[in-house]
Amino acid sequence: MIPRCLVVNGDDFGLSSGTTGGIARAHACGVVTSASLMVRGQAAPAAALYAQQHPDLAVGLHLDLGEWVWKEDEWTPLYQVVSPDDAEEVELEAWCQLDTFRRLLRRNPTHLDSHQHVHRREPVRTVLLKMADSFNVPLRECTAAVRYCGDFYGQTPHGSSLTDAVGVEALLKLLEALPPGTTELGCHPATHDDMGGMYRSERCLELQTLCDPRVREALHRDRISLKSFHDLWLR
After folding, report:
1. How far out from the chain centre does Cα 159 lie?
2. Considering 14, 163, 223, 235, which has the largest number of Cβ atoms within 10 A of its Cβ?
């Protein structure tokens, strides 16, 4: 029988003090095992310091090319670093952010992904696939050995609130239905709301759920092994 393994990854590590503190608390008191660092975030140095002091937290690169919000029936940029459609600009920015990651943490990332999943489209996908291959780490949704689950999320695609989706009962149902093999569960916890964008108050609800003792009890009961990207790839 193929065992069921779960990596719980906190996105937006370093974005703000709230998101950084949320991931740190969910790692210390909950089930978060890995995080994805936004090196351009205001709290990136604090996030890197926490990671250095807690080497069991696997840390990947959360490529930040911009953020878009749903406004007046269309996606509008809240900010944009480079155009996600310009392959040359994307590649330069991606390697620049990787260099910053290495400077902050003094090591390579354990995995790669991107803010608002911009790497689901070309040319960002190809750029990050090349980067992932260059030091043998997984890229979210592009590495067959790791299934990605993004269902633990408290909004619709256009920003309407779905708080029940990040409650304890919802997470327990996700765990119960977890297939054999390794799954990465994405999450976005925060201790308080100090960031812009669409996804804000739901983050505090996520933190409560991730630290709820019923979640660990379910993992034990359902024989799901909690893993991190450290466990999956040895560099």
Report:
1. 18
2. 14
Topology (CATH) of 4-232: TIM Barrel (3.20.20)
> How far is C-alpha 188 from the geometric centre of its chain's CA atoms?
7
Output DSSP code: residue 120. Answer: G
Q: Rounded distance, CA 49 to CA 46, Å?
A: 5
Give the chain's mean pLDDT: 95
> What would the two tokens of residue 161 be?
């609130």
Reported as a pLDDT band with limits 50, 70 and 90, residue 233 is low
Global confidence as pTM? 0.96
The residues, any chain, with a CB within 8 Å of residue 121's CB and separated by 6 or more, are 84
CA R_g for the chain: 17
Could you please report the per-residue DSSP string of 183-200?
Answer: EEEEE---SS----SS--
- What whole-number distance in Å separates Cα of residue 46 and Cα of residue 21? 9
